[in-house]
Amino acid sequence: MPGSNPGTWTPVTVTPAQDGSIVRLKLHQAVIFSGFGDTATYTSSSPSVFTVHPAGTSGGVTTTAGGQVVGQGDSNVTITNGTKTYTIQISAIGG
């Protein structure tokens, strides 16, 4: 059974197959972006609702791209890799 804080739950995986869809999440819930490519860029239309974190390497540790719900409302996440652009709507509700 998961804890009561969505920030402690297993992150939701978002893939290119979800292009154009709405992902409904709770406050503090995390997302992992998978399958968009290593050079993809990620932009949130409303960082006060959903923050994005790009993939990277620091101190020998490699991280995958992801994000977290930080407020209630909707945010469109635009993911661009080369000439392909994906849009995922994050719809965030309270915990």
Report what the structure shows.
The chain has 95 residues and is an all-beta fold. It has one domain (6-93): Sandwich (Immunoglobulin-like), CATH 2.60.40. It has no helices and 10 strands. The chain has a 4-stranded mixed beta sheet, with no helix packed on it. Strands 2-10-9-4 form a 4-stranded mixed beta sheet, with no helix packed on it. The chain starts with 11 loop residues before the first strand and ends with a strand.
CATH class (first level) name: Mainly Beta
The counted number of beta strands is 10
> How are the strands ordered across the major sheet?
1-3-8-5
Task: Tell me what the CATH architecture is.
Answer: Sandwich
Helix percent reads: under 10%
Q: In whole angstroms, how far apart are the ends?
A: 16 Å
Helix/sheet category: mainly beta
Spans of at least 5 consecutive residues with low confidence: none
H/I helix tally: 0
What does the average pLDDT come to? 93
Quickly count the domains. Answer: 1
CATH topology: Immunoglobulin-like
Shape: globular
Radius of gyration, taken over Cα atoms and rounded to an integer in Å: 13 Å
Strand content: over 45%
Largest sheet: 4 strands, mixed
H/E element string?
Answer: EEEEEEEEEE
